[in-house]
Amino acid sequence: MLETSARLLRLLSLLQTPRDWTGTELAERLEVDARTVRRDIEKLRALGYPVDATPGVGGYRLGAGAKLPPLLLDDDEAVAVAIGLRTAAGGTVAGIEDSSLRALSKLEQVLPSRLRHRVSLLHSVTVTVPAATTPVDPDVLTAVAGAIRDNHRLRFDYRTHDGTATLRTVEPHRLAHTGRHWYLIAWDTDRADWRTYRADRLTPRIPTGPRFTPREAPDLDLGGYLTRGVTTSPYRYQATITLAVPAAAAADRIAPTVGVIEPLDPETCLLRTGADDLTELAVYIASFDFPFRVNEPPELITHLRTLATRFAEATAP
Fold first, then answer.
1. Alpha-carbon separation of residue 102 from 81, 88, 90, 117 (angstroms)
2. Fewer CB atoms inside 10 Å of the end CB: C or N, the chain?
3. What percent of the chain has pLDDT over 70?
4. Which stretches of 178-275 are assigned E, i.e. beta strand?
C-alpha cells in the first residue's frame, strides 16, 4: 500500500481525469478500503481541492472551486503544456502572449532536467513564423468551448467574408485550428445543416441557450471535413485543377488549408480549391512547379487566357 502522501497524489491524479469515480473503483486503484478513500477525499478538500460527490452510486469528480489548486501533470503532459505555451506566446490568440510567457517561466522553473531538455531541444530546432492572420480573442474561444462542453446552444453575431453581419444559432460541436485560423464546427439550427465558422469573425451572445442532445458528427474525419469546408465552399469561385504529378508530390507543394488533393492515378491528381478573386487564384496556380490544367470554373479559364495574352504582349519584341 502507498504511503499517505503518495496515495493522495495518486488519488488526485485519478480525479483529474474527466470522469466520475466510484468509491469502490478508487479503493481498488489505490489498494485500500472505502473508508480510507473517504478520509483521503476529505484531506484533499482540506487542501483546497473541490472534490464533488455525485448522488446515486456515490461517485467522485474534481470540480471547480473558488481558486485554482495545483495540478498534477505526467511527463508527456508537462512537455505538451510547455510547447503549447511557447506557441501561444507567439500571438495566435490575441491578448495572452504575456500571460503565456509568465506561465511558461513558472512551468520551466519546476520541470525536471530531463523534461526541460526535451522542451529546449524542440524549441532549438523550431523556427516560429509570426502568424499572418487575424488573432482570436481568448474570451471567444473560452465561451465557445464552454458551450461545447456543456452541450448548450450558442447564439452569436457572425461577419461573413464580404462583411455581411448575421445572427446565428447553433449546436456547437468542435473547435478546430488549421495553423492559420480557429474554426467552429456546428449544427446551424436555422439552416438545418452543418456549418463551419471562422472564430475571429464571431461574437458570442451571453447567456448561452438551452441544452441539446449532441448529434452524430458530420464526418468521422473531422479534419478532412474542415479542410474541404474552408478550402472551397466559403469562396465565390470554386476551382478544380488537374495536376500532372502524383498526389504525394502535390501535397508537398500545396498546404491542406489551401486545397484538397485527390489522386486520379499514379501520375496525376485533382486539386479542389477556391478564392474570392480570380487574379489571386491565377497567380497562385501559376506558381506551381509542375504542369496543370484548369477544369473549372469557366470564369477562371477565361481570366487565365486574358492574362496569358497580356503577358505575351508585354514580352513581345
1. 13, 11, 13, 19
2. C
3. 83
4. 182-188, 193-198, 202-205, 237-243, 259-265, 268-275
Q: Could you tell me the pTM of the whole model?
A: 0.52
Plot region of 94 (φ>0 → left; ψ -120 to 50 → alpha; else → beta): beta
- DSSP 8-state symbol, 199: G
Give the alpha-carbon dihedral of 237, 242, 247, 252, to 10 degrees. Answer: -60
Tens digits of residue pLDDT in 153-191? 999 999 987 778 999 999 999 888 766 678 898 999 999
Higher pLDDT, 167 or 129: 167
Three-class secondary structure of residue 286 per DSSP: helix
Give the amino acid at 8: L
Identity of residue 260: V
Residue indicated by cell numbers 473508508: 35
Q: Between these two residues, 4 and 209, which has the higher pLDDT value?
A: 209
Q: What is the share, in percent, of the chain residues with pLDDT greater than 90?
A: 23
Average pLDDT of every residue of the chain: 82
Task: Provide the CB-side half-sphere exposure for 233 (13 A, CA).
Answer: 11
What dihedral angle (degrees, nearest 10) is formed by the CA atoms of 185, 190, 191, 192? Answer: 80
In total, the chain counts a number of residues equal to: 317
